[in-house]
Specification:
Blueprint lengths: L2 E4 L3 H12 L7 E4 L2 H6 L8 E4 L8 H11 L3 E6 L4 H10 L3 E4 L4 H12 L4 E2 L1 H24 L3 H11 L4 H8 L3 H14 L5 H10 L6
Parallel strand pairs: 1-2, 1-3, 3-4, 4-5, 5-6
Helix pairs in contact: 4-6, 7-9, 7-10, 8-9
Length: 212
Amino acid sequence: MNILLVDDQHVVREALAHALASQPGVGEVVQAGSAREALGAPELHRCQVAVVELCLADHSGIELIRQLKGLAELRLVVLSMHRDEFRVAEAMRAGADGYLSKQSRLADLVEALRTVVRGRTAVSPDVSAAMVRALQRRDAASRGDMVASLSDRERQVLRLLAMGRSAKEVAAQLSISVKTVETHRARLCAKVATHSVADLTRLAVRSGLVEA
């Protein structure tokens, strides 16, 4: 496989290029010290995969990912010192196929490159943790959006059920029938894909309708 290596730290890039070139199955390693060099490299269309540092002096690494994806049929792995959940999530949304921290071993990077060329995703263990945190934040935001979309009556029913009230008690407090309470509860469960009042309670706590 031919590799495009984009990093504006010259010593790091040259050392990594030399190391990659010595690996079995690696053909040409094209070096670029800036986004401009990467986008204008005449060898770009011969490369199957790119390794990109997010922090570049002349350009946003995230934008470079999008541009490279639009210019050539290649897979892309981020190799960066940054592995916080926000950068990881942003890079993956931009089109990265893999994300490794610079604490990774050379063997791990080579394996990641081979993995993404086969059409799969590759991330280092420390980055996996960041991705999980990003997904958890997204899910929490989705739950908040769901609660915001409820009617006033549905929020009232959810709050009282989360406080441990029975359907009969909810009905009496809201001056509605028990059947209506059961209907609201069924709709709430359907919206969060659960049959558990415990899940509804957790949702109410996370959204601030009731205190933990």
